[in-house]
Amino acid sequence: MTLKDKVIFISGSSRGIGLGIARIFAQNGAHVVLNGRKEIASDIIQELENYGVKVRVLLGDVSSFEETKRMIATIKDEFGRLDILVNNAGITRDQLLLRMSEEDFDDVYAINLKGTFNLTKHAIALMLKQKSGTIINITSVVGLAGNAGQVNYASSKAGIIGLTKATAKEVAARGITCNAIAPGYIKTEMTQQLSEKTKESIIQSIPARSIGTVDDIAQAALYLAQAKYVTGQVLSVNGGMYM
Ligand SMILES: NC(=O)c1ccc[n+]([C@@H]2O[C@H](COP(=O)([O-])OP(=O)(O)OC[C@H]3O[C@@H](n4cnc5c(N)ncnc54)[C@H](OP(=O)(O)O)[C@@H]3O)[C@@H](O)[C@H]2O)c1
Q: pTM above the 0.90 mark?
């Protein structure tokens, strides 16, 4: 499938993995709809437009059912279609279970899991009418393996895997695929918060002995967006961290 003139919406694409995905799809000719809660730098928009594609920014919080509904309705009005949805927006609020507050748990679920539900629910109505579409959900290696200090995050990411498989089964016969990417440890602002000691011990636990890049994840998204006979899968991109 050629990506030229396809429309892709990537939640949480002002930086990090989401922006990396936006770049690779723009380079391949797709029109890109960016999202985040805060303003997106004009040089990022300019850089993507230089690939000759349309770039639209829709600010909004994915945890809000109404805001996600508005964003998908705007895409329908302005582009008439949505070919690829990437549910990428996500946060961490790490703490050992004993010390984890209810708020830390609820915030992570609201953005990571409910946010994925919100956008998928609104987008799927449009994709069903088109009889085509691709959904790519960004989960995590810790959704597969678990991780101390991340009960909230790991379970929200495991929930995304269940959501991915259930959605895939519901819509496979209608020409729509739904898959997940499970990144390992990737260099972004999210992981830069970790101490040098923690980073070093993570690197030692990765068979490839290196951290991943946003481009490693973007390449996986590019593959899934074009793989019409692949659905309900979790593609691990983790340097062998979890097999
Ligand atoms: N980095 C890793 O090693 C790693 C590993 C496994 C999985 N992941 C997953 O990959 C995804 C991206 O991670 P990243 O490392 O690129 O994170 P990041 O650098 O912190 O970027 C997160 C993005 O999500 C947006 N965002 C956060 N909350 C949002 C909300 N409620 N509504 C809309 N946008 C929101 C942020 O923009 P605003 O701040 O403007 O809202 C930003 O654009 C996440 O789902 C993360 O869990 C990352």
A: yes
pLDDT of residue 193: 84
Residue 79: is its pLDDT beyond 80?
A: yes
Pocket test for ligand 1, best of 88, 118, 199, 214 (most atoms within 8 A of CB): 88
Query: Tens digit of pLDDT for each residue in 197-224?
Result: 989 999 999 999 999 999 999 999 999 9
Whether 242 sits among the annotated catalytic residues: the reply is no
Distance CA 227, CA 215 (A): 18
From 51, 153, 229, 242, active-site residue: 153
- How many residues are listed for the chain in this entry? 243
Kindly give the residue spans of alpha helices, DSSP state H, lying in the chain.
16-27, 42-49, 65-79, 102-108, 115-130, 141-145, 151-171, 189-192, 196-204, 214-226
